[in-house]
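To the structural biology subgroup,

Please find below the input and predicted structure for Sucrose-6-phosphate hydrolase, which we are adding to the shared reference set this quarter. The sequence is reproduced verbatim from the submission form. If anyone notices a discrepancy with their own records, reply to this email rather than editing the shared folder directly, so we keep one authoritative version.
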Amino acid sequence: MIFNNGKYKSILAAQAGELENIRRRVEEDKDFRPCYHLAPPTGLLNDPNGLIFDGEKYHIFYQWFPFDALHGMKHWKHFTTSDWLCYKEAQPLIPTEAFESHGCYSGGALMVEDKIALFYTGNTRRAEDNQRIPYQNLAIFDKAGNLLEKRSLLENAPPGYTEHVRDPKPFFSATGKIRFICGAQRQDLSGTAILFEMDDLEDSPRLLGELELPDFDNRHVFMWECPDLLKIDQQDLFIWSPQGKPREKLQYQNNYHALYALGHLSQGRFNAESVAELDQGFDFYAPQTFGGLPNNEYALLYAWCGLPDLSYPTDSYRWHSMLCMPREIRVHKGELYQQPLAQIYQNIKMAQPVTVEKEIELKDLDRSYLKFDAQNTPFNICFFANRKGQRLTLSYDGKTLCLDRSHSEQTETMLKFGEQRYCALDSLHQVEIFFDRSILEIFLNGGEKAMTSRFFIADRQNRLSCDRPLLLEIGYPQAISYK
Ligand code: FRU
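Predicted structure (tokenized):
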């Protein structure tokens, strides 16, 4: 079927030249398009989906509405890469069946022999009353990236849950069965995650029950999106995106959050030694890890650098959001550490270090990598000051790092959820910042904390000023290309 109903329009219904016209508008954006982050060619990107290593290359899918910067009919855009520099376009997942009539919502992938099994939510709406009916579906791709078949596994939410059951993430159980975990909302409108099991891909899923997480304060939380359960270095890691957590002074600053719990899972009960936000920036949501890695010494993750229900300044150019850089996650000193993938570092061209006394103009600062030792001493650094007085500020008072966007282009996030983001630290030494036109990813103390944010300053100058001398290492990550 070719769906074409308002914003629920499939790419198969595009008119001749329609996408090219949108693409031309996207290309008019000379300020904010990134060089080395994955961004949609047109329209809106949200969650990373179906991340899997097939033994030779990495498959990356993401939620995509091709026609505009809004949440319309969701497709899964699909790329493969083996070097994280060249991204080869592969067959997307397109809604064509009744069990996905209003979009192929999020999900994950599992290598089953030499096939890629995608588990995802089919979003549908009943014609009479627009009632949402969720389906959990399966699509099989070959390693070359071609769709072989699709079918629906489950129709409707199981008893005890509302229609908000979605985002299946599959994995193998210790006995080799296929399991998947879905985000869900209980009938009492609280958020949770539920587990299903199947003997093999031909089987029908059985509900095992909820994932209990007693160490998490679930008060006010009405939905868990994008759950992800995996082993990392002898421990269990649960990553999810709960909605409704109240804001606090130094954490949970955004509308919704991406959290992790590290600990041990036994019989559906997750005993967590730590529960924390994965990232403390303005724009980080719906992270997902790769399946199919050869071992679980580390995990590999992408996230959506954006948040639900918010507009962004690039919407007028008809594109919205990007993914973070691929991130390596490790357990270190009992905590979760995150840094860009080793290959990203290998592809940074380092320049001579510079000492900045007060102010400096740095070539292509807005697509650079910066590294310095803060020596656990307060600082205040200002980036990209332009003639209108816009700038981005990063400051440290000896206890807390603050990223201040108050003097950059106003965004809906800032209007509704504040203009600063904070990160409390016992001490601060290594600071690494990756800038890419309208995004910055900050990694502190070798990955102990991360802050990922978009920022919008047009006509910026590649200037940096600071209130004390700084010895800066500077480099340039290689741009990615599409094939
Ligand atoms: C998270 C999310 C998922 C859903 C998808 C739809 O951002 O809302 O729960 O499957 O996006 O695009």
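Summary notes: Residues 46-47, 63, 74, 105-106, 121, 166-167, 225-226, 286, 308 surround beta-D-fructofuranose (CB under 6 Å). Residues 344-482 form a domain with the Jelly Rolls fold (CATH 2.60.120.560).

Regards,
Lab coordination
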